[in-house]
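Section handout, structural biology tutorial.
Before the tutorial, make sure you can parse a SMILES string by hand: atoms, branches in parentheses, ring closures as digits. In the record below the ligand is magnesium ion, and the chain has 282 residues. In the tutorial you will relate the predicted structure tokens back to the input. Do not try to memorize them.
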Amino acid sequence: MAAKYEQKDTILHVENLSIVYGEKVIISNIGFTEKNTVRPDKPQGQTIAFLGRSGRGKSTLFRALTGLEEPTTGMVLIPDFEKPIVNGQQPAKKVQEGDVGFVDQKYTLFRHKTIYQSLKYALRNVKISSEEKDEKIITYLKDWGLQTCRNQYPNELSGGQRQRTAILEQLLSSGLYMVLDEPFSGLDVGNIQNVKDAFRLINDSHELNTIIFSTHDIELAVELADSIYVLGYLKNDDGTLTQTGTILKHFDLKEMGLAWQHEFTADHLDITKQIKQIMLAS
Ligand SMILES: Nc1ncnc2c1ncn2[C@@H]1O[C@H](COP(=O)(O)OP(=O)(O)OP(=O)(O)O)[C@@H](O)[C@H]1O
Ligand SMILES: [Mg+2]
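Predicted structure of the complex:
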């Protein structure tokens, strides 16, 4: 049965966004709005997925969403929680670097910090005792299969270990919003489960918590997200593809009654197939 919910304040608004490098229009005409979802019976965050074939502009868009890159046209607005509410609405501001947690596709880490030191640093603004922080870190390291390399530096880690450390670092330090570029790629089955569990936990703990991620795994996106955007190349008048990415389709799984379910149904499979067709043609 479809879950009851309401859509409240805007939490992310993207308008007419394009990014041009030199002569090349990488993405254009990107616009969408995501709102705070409120359910009567439980805290419900937002999980938003971006799908699209390689080179369609997912990472480029994510750099704009996190304020790392100034768009050529358009803007990205998020609520400004430092300002008082006016007429029942939180005033908006242009996103700036540092406003939003970001795990980039290269899983960038502090070069001179061990895993343990990085995670301790990530908790620097959390108001619990140093012992409690240690306990928390040790539990995570164990659960995420990182305990044996806790004192190693990034250049001494495997790709998957670096990736998990980068994700954990954001989980521990981020505010309400978190953008993750391909957090699942290259992880083994156990670690995929860890990241999925972490997403669920974040989603269930505060109504404003918002996770935005990209993936090449369509099924995983349909399973986890309540809102999915498919990026693809725009078409020329003659039907041939341009090299410019844009949003081709939005699937609101809440509206479809498919969000927040604990099983993957025939309807989920149907959406997966639809998305695959759109991607293959773009
Ligand atoms: N600094 C840059 N200068 C010029 N072109 C760039 C630059 N960065 C990315 N591009 C181009 O922008 C396009 C989109 O790249 P982007 O990394 O956003 O794609 P993506 O959807 O994240 O792909 P993938 O799934 O492979 O990660 C590509 O054609 C890429 O070559
Ligand atoms: Mg990318």
